[in-house]
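Blinded run. Sample ID left blank on purpose so nobody reads anything into the name before looking at the predicted structure. Input follows.
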Amino acid sequence: MNPDMEKLTFLAKSLGAAHAAIIDVAVVQFNEDFRTQCEQNVCGSYNKNWMCPPAVGSIAELKEKVQTFKQGLLFQTVYQLESSFDWEGMQEGTAEHTRIFRELLDKLRSTFSYKKLLPLNVGPCTYCSRCAFLDKQECRFPEESVSSVEASGIDVIALEKSYGIPYNNGENTISCVSLILVEP
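Blinded prediction complete.
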């Protein structure tokens, strides 16, 4: 394994990830059901964000993009909730995960010399407080916008299982997952 890749798991954990692994893109499984959840607007961002379906593209297009990479960093953060209905705690956990994701992405861009990166976060892109999609304008920050692992149709549960990362981290917790694909 490339020594830089090994440093990525250490870096992710030093920033607050509970679990991190270097993954081989060849083991990534895709599942159309994730897109069905998007279409059912489970998170409320369907057709409201450039990085969410349908604007982000079809699963076939996103799968093709993912498969141009050979490896990446999968990491998970875990947050304790007051109860399984703690919506505010879920939002805070997701926001903290995104902060760690952004810090890690900034460090990857400034410290490592990858030819290209494909960062995939949890949930909809939140780089802007209001997505330009809602105003029928082009994305204001295309270099910073990120789609989610699920919008790409990636089977997160199977991927985590492949690398010994638990999907469920106990009662009253929220687990957030990101994947940053890299080309050395």
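Unblinding after everyone has recorded impressions. The chain has five helices and five strands.
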